[in-house]
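thought: fold this chain, then report.
action: predict
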Amino acid sequence: MSKNKWVRSISFNRTNPDDVARLRLIGKKSFSKYIKHLLDEELKRQTVTPVATTETDTPQQREKVLPPKKQPVVRPQQQQPQLFNPMLRR
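observation:
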């Protein structure tokens, strides 16, 4: 095998019905060629459909929806402790 090749393995379980169906689908085809074909199709699909959205695609821009504002935490006023001094009483 040349230095330029990179092998990725995939496992199938012969007792798993889903894996058996996958193996039957592949049949006697070249597995490597089949996987490369699927990957090529996925790459074409991704280039046709843009992944990033623009500002006009987001609902906040169209409908002017603003995120909810956080309510400030209201804490009770702290009262100054009263000094116990009979002379300061009114």
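thought: worth noting. Residues 31-48 form the longest helix (18 residues).
final: tokens above.
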